[in-house]
Specification:
Blueprint (H helix, E strand, L loop, with lengths): L18 E2 L2 E9 L5 H13 L4 H10 L2 E9 L4 E9 L2 H9 L2 H10 L13 H8 L15 H18 L2 H8 L4 H5 L1 H11 L1
Antiparallel strand pairs: 1-2, 2-4, 3-4
Helix pairs in contact: 1-4
Length: about 200
Amino acid sequence: MTATAPTPQSAHPERPGRSDGVCSEFTVFTEIKPGEADELREVLAALADASDNESVHAAVRQIGTLHDARHVIFDNDTRFMFASVFDGSWDAYIDDFAKTVVGERFDKVFCHSEGFPGISDPGVKDWFVAHQAPAGVFVSAYPDLTVQQIYKDHRVEEAFEEVLDTPEFRAALENPANAELVATPAFQKLLEEASA
């Protein structure tokens, strides 16, 4: 009989949450500190008013993995939920918050939750794991697209739309020398998609 070597323990324990392709969900439920629901509501209202703020969107772009996020107060102002969808590893996602203005906002929001140690505290990941509940079902509309791919696709689309609107492009389409290229199924598909 051969002895089996023990399986090495991962430096990062399995994190809760479901994935669909490159996208993962993150949902945290907390207890709101007694008497602080109105303060939390004010913080969330201020964040909602600042949602068009360039610094928030710049920070989200800096993180580069956040698809969306939601904050909800429920159960008669006693509980709070934060839910988001992100790309990449759970640990990197949490680490990224502390590096941007989003981390400051996280502290302003979660300081109203029982026991929150602060986004920069070494124990914050354990706190999130203790309060995270994985979704029963998680489906992404675009499971194979990371946030960075979506940003790139948008930039390419904008650039292509600019090209389509030029007289030079229209002239190139009508030039008999390009007829063979224009007639290819790939080029026709490109034109169809652009006009959709």
